[in-house]
Specification:
By secondary structure, this protein is mainly α. It has 12 helices and 3 strands. It has a 3-stranded antiparallel sheet with strand order 1-2-3. The longest helix is centred in the last third of the chain and has 34 residues. The protein is globular, with a radius of gyration of 20 Å. This is Probable peptidoglycan glycosyltransferase FtsW. Keywords: Cell cycle, Cell division, Cell shape, Glycosyltransferase, Membrane, Peptidoglycan synthesis, Transferase, Transmembrane, Transmembrane helix. It is found in: Membrane. One of its GO terms (biological process) is cell division.
């Protein structure tokens, strides 16, 4: 049953816009030094992020105005496209900082792994609806098996994104399944798989050693400088634009470690306010999921909730050295045109679902 006015969730829209504007401001502050040194333009990263953000806002508006039920027919083709793009990265992808994650089309480049996240959300939502509710182990295994190909392709050169995609699948299946015991086997199997996967490459084991004692390793430099930035921020920070650690001490400060610059410039209070914004965002997803008129809409909102929650938690955990360092961006804040584009497209999906209420 459609709501009386059919309007999208205004509260969600406002929170997203605050995060986008805040992200652009913090990105300019954290990237100005690198932009000046590398490209003789302090606004270099800001302008690229602004362009991707504008594209994302257009995508968000377009998707929000659609009937989300019509997207179910594109779930399988969209997922197959993500498999093709992820496979193309392994064959023709561009490498940056030793990681092959980008595809180039003319002057533009993008990360197919970011597109895989909304593609998996749509696929699983449509698949679970076709199976009614996932009630037994075989159906659960079948649904989980659908995402393993993309997890394997992405995980070849981007383990952190593969973990996020797998986490999204677990969240969505958990919500659709009334039983808890099968998830014990999923957790045990996932832990075993992760242990084997980590042991296959020496550099992954090295990351564990660096995580335990970052001060003893040259590669622990970024982690240590990030922690220095967090500690020097104090309660209220040194002021926006006044960070010292972004001046070459924290490598690529505008990327995965941007939360440490936020802590330095805005202090504990600023960091907590940002975390509060993310909590409010997740709360709106939960409201949308519970008010959706059907299982398909609920699972879309729940999948987006799982994606944002997992990525925020992992990014902050990496920056604070709670878990080993790996490349995970902070949603809406870290530099990354592909990331912000598809994040805003996901927000459009959530807004589309919010136009329909029970």
């Amino acid at each position: 049953m459609r709501s009386r006015n059919g309007k999208p969730d205004i509260c969600l829209f406002v929170i997203v816009m605050i995060l986008v504007i805040f992200g652009l401001a913090v990105l300019y502050s954290s990237s100005a030094y690198n932009g000046q040194v590398r490209f003789d333009d302090p606004a270099y990263y800001f302008k690229k992020q602004l362009f991707a953000t504008l594209l994302g806002l257009f995508a968000m508006a377009g998707i929000a105005s659609m009937d989300y039920h019509a997207l179910a027919r594109f779930a399988v083709p969209g997922y197959l496209l993500s498999l093709a793009l992820s496979g193309a990265v392994l064959l023709f992808g561009d490498a940056y900082n030793g990681s092959r994650r980008w595809l180039s089309i003319g002057p533009l480049s993008f990360q197919p792994a970011e597109y895989a996240k909304p593609a998996v959300i749509l696929l699983l939502a449509a698949a679970v609806c076709k199976m009614s509710k996932v009630k037994n182990g075989l159906k659960m295994a079948a649904v989980m098996g659908m995402v393993l190909p993309i997890v394997g392709l992405v995980g070849t050169n981007n383990l952190s994104t593969a973990v996020i995609i797998l986490g999204i699948a677990v969240v969505m299946i958990f919500i659709s399944n009334p039983r808890y015991l099968p998830f014990l086997w999923i957790i045990l199997s996932g832990t075993g798989f992760l242990a084997i996967f980590l042991s296959l490459e020496q550099y992954r084991l090295e990351r564990l050693a660096i995580w335990r004692n970052p001060e003893l390793y040259e590669k622990g430099y970024q982690t240590m400088q990030g922690l220095y930035a967090i500690g020097s921020g104090g309660l209220f920070g040194v002021g926006l634009g006044n960070s010292m650690q972004k001046l070459g001490f924290v490598p690529e400060a505008q990327n995965d470690m941007i939360f440490s610059i936020i802590c330095e410039e805005m202090g504990l209070v600023g960091a907590l306010l940002l975390i509060l914004l993310f909590i409010l965002l997740l709360w709106r997803f939960m409201i949308i999921a519970t008010q959706a008129p059907d299982l398909f809409g609920s699972l879309i909102a729940a999948g987006i909730l799982g994606h944002i929650a997992i990525q925020v938690i992992l990014n902050i955990a990496v920056v604070t050295n709670t878990i080993p360092n790996t490349g995970i961006t902070l949603p809406f804040i870290s530099y990354g045109g592909t990331s912000v584009l598809f994040l805003l497209a996901e927000m459009g999906l959530a807004l589309s679902v919010s136009r329909w209420r029970r």
